[in-house]
Amino acid sequence: MVVRKAVLVSFSVRSDRFESDYERNKFYRKLYGWRQKIRKSYGDYEYYKEGLLDEIPFMKVDKSLFMISCSDLALIREYMDAWKRKVEYDVFDVVLTPQQIRILKEKNINL
Description:
Strand content: 35-45%
Strand order of the largest sheet: 4-5-1-6
Oligomer: single chain
Number of helices: 3
Number of strands: 6
């Protein structure tokens, strides 16, 4: 049986350690990306600003919990370590079976 490893990243934002809601939102926006809608008299425009997870394949499992390939872990660690005084995180190894890999590929998630 062939298995492939991935990692599960769990993080907890310590809201009381952020200087403001703006700073906390900055963390989330740089991680997940965000949409900005601008209304002008001549029309509405929507922009999407990419976040770190737009650069790498991931599967969001739950709030503050996502799975990535082991090869992308260094990028996530670097990002989380930059916020280490305000965000706590843990990384867990995950072993995927061939069937689980197939299911993820069907959802266009290639870990």
